Amino acid sequence: MDPAVSKKTSRLLKKSGVVGGLTLVSRMLGFVRDAFIAWLLGAGPGSDAFFLAFRLPDLLRKFFSDGMLTLSFVPVFTTCLVEGGSKRAFAMARACFVSVSTTGALVAVVGIVAAPMIVRGIAPGFSPDSHTYGLTVQLVRVMMPYIALVALLAVSMGVLNATGEFVAPGAGPIVFNLSIILAALFLCPWFSSPALALALGVVLGGLFQFLLQVPFLLNKGFRFFERTVFHHPGMSEAGRRLLPCLVGAAGFQINLFAATVFASMLSGGSISYLYYAERLVQFPMALFAVSISTVLLPVLSTEKNQGSAVEVPGVFARAVKAVVCVSLPAMFGLAALRVPVVSLLFERGVFDGVCVEETASALLFFTMGLWAFSGNRIIVTLFHARSDVATPFWASVKGIGFNLLACLLLGHLLGYRGLALSVSVAAAVNFFFLVPGVWSSMDHRMKKNIGVWTCRSLFASVIMYGLVTYGVSFIPDTISKAALLVRVAGMLVLGVAVYTGTFVLTFRKGFGQLLQELGDQAD
Questions:
Q1: 155 CB-contact burial (10 Å; exposed 0-12 / middle 13-18 / buried 19+)
Q2: Alpha-carbon distance 457 to 453, whole Å?
Q3: Cα torsion at 285, 386, 319, 440 (round to 10°)?
Q4: Is the whole model's pTM more than 0.85, yes or no?
Q5: Whole-angstrom distance, CA of residue 21 vs CA of residue 166
Q6: Which of 36, 258, 336, 450 could connect to 468 by a Cys-Cys bridge, CB 3.0–4.6 Å?
Q7: Within its chain, how far is the Cα of 109 from the centroid?
Q8: 266, 28 in Cβ contact below 8 A?
Q9: Distance in angstroms (rounded) separating the CA atoms of residues 240 and 163
Q10: CB 340 within 8 A of CB 481
Q11: What does the alpha-carbon distance between residue 424 and residue 428 come to, in Å, rounded to a whole number?
Q12: Distance CA 498, CA 249 (A)
């Protein structure tokens, strides 16, 4: 193993661990947030209205603040930083701030005015005379200012990630989730519907999340009010790459949004079942794939700009292996534990046993695509580090087209379960259109290594799935939440132990060879 590649991989994994740790806290608070939403709204017309109205700003949040806008921003900013220093790079960032703040404010104003038309477009199944439709319009209007905030947040996070600061961007979602939780606790009595209090919590969360980034930006030497060139060439390049970057990286989010639109034409609660299930799938995906890709992008972009592109495939291959050995067991484990996990997290208040079974059913179909969701996120990062935006764009377009056709067919046959399955299969289609472009950049040894690594992980995951499924069968239907927590925790420990033990035993030299393969040691 090249010592330089090993050292860079070790730093990558350590930084990913920091981002992953913050993401873990954020996701745990996200489950607390969703538990409050389930307690207050359950899974019915009120929750459908909230989740549908939230889906649009949440889609933009995924576009902008969850690292997807940075796919267009970070490579260009890094080039400015390497070639012209921080002064040139910060000038480009200020131009982006002016542009996105102006555009975001205009979009928010237009969205408030045109809220009825927006709801008719994204919820064709809602009757204009229904209470659900009217509530959705109100919620869209309340949450529209969040769009302006999330655009500013995206540029802030892009600057910080490109300059090696991952703590503030990683902690931002924690602040966002806390704001919604506090709104659920303290603002609900002041509104006619708890959904409106939650919507205000979304906006406040976006504001506090942006304000958190400001001290870190100032510490890096960035100044908001210095002289700004409004048509900076770096901003123009980032803007040119923006749409294909977003489409190429956000196929999953776009497909999920399309599935939500189709779900509005199904029975009440369908939108909510998809939302709760998707939140559980997002946990392992964000914790590992998104964390690693967030750190991987500036690392690969810097290697490319400094003329060290020969090391890029090695660093990337080890990042892929790190994601594989987590995403596959997470997929099988979540499928095995789907019913007790949904019950433990959400079954309280108006979220009853029927809601548990329906959400767990949707979760099963989402877990089928977890490997592809994670794989796409990592592979797209490599393409954008190479400044290749066309390949992931067209792969995503094909996946989105397939998803629309599949939603029409499977949504009619299987209801919301078919919509979840459509999103999963579309991600697999996207993945298989991306792989050839990555495979060609690797030598035979790397390809074989990744293939063997994947087979080992798959073998260990299947054994773990069988044992955990057998253990779950002994959990009684009527059980207290405390006892259920103990049972689920026990199953998690069992699953991790079985998977880790089986996975390590597939290496001739055991755990030491495993660490060496991940790049923590040199040969």
A1: buried
A2: 6
A3: 110
A4: no
A5: 11
A6: 336
A7: 27
A8: no
A9: 22
A10: no
A11: 7
A12: 34
pLDDT at 40: 83
Quote the tokens at residue 153: 């947040």
Rounded to whole angstroms, the Cα distance separating 319 from 20 reads 14
Q: Tell me the per-residue pLDDT of 447-497, one tens digit each, with 9 for 90 and over.
A: 787 888 888 889 999 999 999 999 988 888 788 888 888 999 999 999 989
Phi, then psi, of 2 in degrees rounded to 5: -65, 125
Q: Note whether 286 and 323 are within 8 A (CB).
A: no
Burial class (CB in 10 A: 0-12, 13-18, 19+), 492: middle
Rounded to whole angstroms, how far apart are CA atoms 242 and 385? Answer: 14
Q: Within 10 Å of residue 310's Cβ, how many Cβ atoms?
A: 11
Residue among 32, 50, 54, 38 nearest 355 (CA): 38
Amino acid at 52: L
Rg, C-alpha atoms of the chain: 23
Task: Count CB neighbours of 320 within 10 A.
Answer: 24
Tokens 């090695």: give the residue. 314
Cβ-contact 293, 245 below 8 angstroms: no
Determine the Cα–Cα distance for residues 20 and 341; give it in Å rounded to an integer. Answer: 21
Amino acid 307 reads: G
